[in-house]
Amino acid sequence: MSEIRYDLLHNEYIVIAPERLHRPIPQQCADTFSIQKCPFCPGNEELTPQEIFSIKNNSTWQTRVIPNLYKALQIETPFISNRDGLNEMWGGYGAHEIVIDTPKHTVKIQNMSQEEIFWWLYTLQQRYRDLRNDKKLISLQIFKNHGRNAGATQPHPHTQIIALPLMTKEQLYLFEHCQRYFHNHGRSLHEDIVHFESNSQRNLFESEHFFTYTPYASSFAFETAIIAKNMGFGECSKIQLQELAEHIRSLFYALSKELGDFPFNLLFYLPPLNENFENSSFFHEVNNIFRFYIRITPRIYTIAGFELATRSMINPVVPEMAAQLLRRWYETGS
Predict the structure, then answer these.
(1) Which stretches within 83-216 are classed as H helix?
(2) pLDDT above 80 for 283
């Protein structure tokens, strides 16, 4: 039986519809991208823009960061307002970077070691810290697309970083929602979610600083989230990043056992980098109202008309069932 659930974290309504579980899943197209021509593989560094950052090991690099060759924004563009009648536009100032997660062309995140995932996280953290120093940058989004259904166009494992000189409507809405919750309850929304969900059927994995679960009103089949309990992403120690790497490794192991090589989007939800007129009402209390979290959305079903028209999702997999299936792989020691 279908249910309409309220997504407390995103302040949205989600339809849970198990009846739609048995719809055919579109077949994935095979990737035929040649390793010899892959600009992200070792030995092909001259095919990419000059690197911004890298982690080196004895034989080659572990991670590389480069400007996106097809960048949506660039630091060189002035952030200047221009009006055209009632319309207004700004120069496309910002940052658009590619993090090459690993030198291995065909590896999937579920096959990466905890140490490899740690260096990926450490690289993301270093770029987050560096971009935060540019006071004109206000918000930052880290995201990873895997598979054609998730929007990936390059099969070599990579992550994108986009930093903007403003906050989007969805970002503002999220933080204002978290602020209202804190003022009404005296606790952060994320703190209450962790407290309640740790005793629910949706709990997957809990450690000292992080909590992994299937959200009560999951938008996507087998959607999961990892919430930081008490620190910001930029402030995580290396030990805490190792702990987060273990959450990611265990989760993707379990997901891959259930779903195979599935398409997904991995999204970081992070606080504003710097203060501006849009976020001044909550910027100085962001440490009280918000905890950074990572959302993993498998894209095994397509988004259609209802979702586009209403911005509410239809999810055919009950989150409690997804958690039950995934927990089996945690319990085997992953």
Answers:
(1) 114-132, 169-185, 189-197
(2) yes
Distance CA 291, CA 284 (A): 14
Q: Per residue in 173-195, pLDDT tens?
A: 999 999 999 999 999 999 999 99
Task: Count up the domains in the chain and report the number.
Answer: 1
Separation of CA 301 from chain center:
19
73 or 321, greater pLDDT: 321
Judge whether 45 lies within some domain. Answer: no
User: Does 33 fall in a domain?
Assistant: no
* 105 appears as a binding residue in the annotation: yes
Query: Which of 122, 123, 117 is closest to 97 using CA atoms?
Result: 123
pLDDT at res. 71: 76
In a domain, 65, yes or no: yes
CATH of the domain at 313: 3.30.428.10
Give phi and psi for 86, each to the nearest 5: -80, -15
Check whether 177 is labelled as a binding-site residue.
no
Q: CA-CA distance, 36 to 16, in Å (whole number)? A: 44
Please give the positions annotated as active site: 158
Question: Which pair of tokens denotes residue 32?
Answer: 């035929």
Q: Tell me which residue range forms the domain holding 124.
A: 51-331
**For residues 106-145, b (16+ Cβ closer than 10 Å) or e, as one string?**
eeebbebeeebbbbbbbbbbbbbeebbebeebbbbebebb
Q: Rounded to an integer, what distance in angstroms lies between the CA atom of residue 184 and that of residue 190?
A: 14
Question: Three-state DSSP class for 267?
Answer: strand
- Domain membership of residue 23 (yes or no) is no
Reported as a single tens digit per residue, the pLDDT across 223-243 is 999 999 999 999 999 999 999
- 284 belongs to an annotated ligand binding site: no
* Beta strand pairing call for 61-67 and 95-100: antiparallel
Higher-scoring residue by pLDDT: 188, 5:
188
| DSSP at 217 | T
For residues 172 and 333, which has the higher predicted lDDT (pLDDT)? 172
Structure tokens at 57: 């090991």
